[in-house]
Amino acid sequence: MIETDLCIIGAGSGGLSLAAGAAQMGARVVLIEGAAMGGDCLNHGCVPSKALLAAAKQAHAMTSGATFGIAPVVPKVDFAAVKDHVARTIATIAPMDSQERFEGFGVQVIRAYARFTAADEVEADGQRIRARRFVIATGSTAAVPPIPGIDSVPYLTNETIFALRAAPRHLIILGGGPIGIEMAQAHRRLGVPVTVIEAARALGREDPELAAIALATLRAEGVEILEDAPVTALSGEPGAIVATLKDGRQVEGSHLLVATGRKVALDRLNLAAAGVEATARGVTVGADLRSVSNRRVYAIGDAAGGLQFTHVAGYHAGVVIRAILFGLPSRARTHHIPRVTFCDPELAQVGLTEAEARAAHGAALTVLRTEFAHNDRAQAEARTTGLVKVMVVGGRPVGASIIGPQAGELIGLWALALASGLKMSSMAGMVVPYPTLNDVSKRAAGAYFSPKLFDNPWVKRGVRLVQRLLP
């Protein structure tokens, strides 16, 4: 029997952040991981996908230099070497998430799958661990839809596609969400014909105006995107897979990538033995991320049943560490959490979209817009496609949507504004270096005050009066 203060199940982003913080502040910590250290983000998600996108960006740059007087050339893509770059990226980052590093913090790491045997006890690798508090940080896996025939054809998920070393002849992607769109553009830029099949609207969670810009770019690059096209059957064999659509059309390809969402990984945990309530979405928790049915247990990240992002798992770790280590009240919020689809141009969002803000605030809402075409840095780099849209209520931003170059970086400013409750005057008053892309956000903030200053007759009369009185 191992007695400990804190037992963390899952060594992904959230579990690792929590383990490192708790151990370094003096808690006894046991960390249990049945798969690879670093979880999905390092091994199958954020890291490999961004490495693949970076390689694809280099290939695309070789074909798009005419604007700068650079003759376009067709890149020679060594697909296996591209995957070597992906593997090197993972290997370079992996030591930061390694068992050895966390054992150096004083964490006891057990490499096995855990299952609850009682309300205050789990078993892993033949060892029993009893803890004052448990944190479930098991993440999620690719959800496979129950399409007839899917069990009879080979398919890829984000957990297997990065190991593919030969370029597909034609890649079919089921799902037009962020994963599907990112993988579509990456493979198309690396020379692979791609068809995306989406049952509803591609990038359906995002602002439709901004999503349309992203999808138009992909289509211009040669990605076929079929929307409102449910798949009713899958058939074929390795190298020749056929997707039959509801309207009778058929799409044929050599490889199939399933990117239709995520399933929370709770099946192995035997939650019933601990009296932990859960649904298909995740562990049932309160705003403090604590189980509603077993007060010893918390859940963070995907396991908590909310937003499924690596940065949310890290944020959740900070929320629960205050409660577990110091007994302080702590609640998770969501209004300030940003998200990014790393296509090109990037698509980023924090807070409410325009439609959500209109539904919530009605006539009190002001929507500000600034296009990248008015930004000098964007003009110099010939990357003028995109815009910033800011939703404002009562002088404070309640949401921001950005599509354009480096939108994932630019959204951080608005995430700070929402997290800190900043006013638009603070945003308009900042000074940014010239020329930088951040000026699009400053211009958007300034646009909130322009009508009050430039279109107000009382301001003009006041200025004229002051001018007459000044010596």
Show the helix and strand layout.
Blueprint: E1 2-9, H1 13-24, E2 29-32, H2 39-44, H3 46-63, H4 79-93, H5 99-104, E3 108-110, E4 114-118, E5 121-124, E6 127-136, E7 140-142, E8 171-174, H6 178-189, E9 194-197, H7 208-220, E10 224-226, E11 231-237, E12 240-245, E13 250-253, E14 255-258, E15 262-264, H8 271-274, E16 278-279, E17 282-283, E18 297-299, H9 310-326, E19 338-341, E20 346-351, H10 354-361, E21 365-371, H11 376-380, E22 387-393, E23 396-404, H12 407-420, H13 424-429, H14 439-454, H15 457-469
Parallel strand pairs: 1-2, 1-6, 2-3, 6-18, 8-9, 8-14, 9-10
Antiparallel strand pairs: 4-5, 5-6, 7-15, 11-12, 12-13, 16-17, 19-20, 20-23, 21-22, 22-23
Largest sheet: 7 strands, mixed
Summed up, the helix count is 15
CATH architecture of the largest domain: 3-Layer(bba) Sandwich
Question: What is the general shape?
Answer: globular
Beta strands, count = 23
**Which percent bin holds the helix content?**
25-40%
Helix- and strand-based class? alpha/beta
Rounded to the nearest angstrom, the distance between the terminal CA atoms is: 86 Å
Average of the residue pLDDT scores: 96
CATH class of the largest domain: Alpha Beta
User: Radius of gyration, rounded?
Assistant: 25 Å
CATH topology of the largest domain: FAD/NAD(P)-binding domain
Amount of beta strand: 15-25%
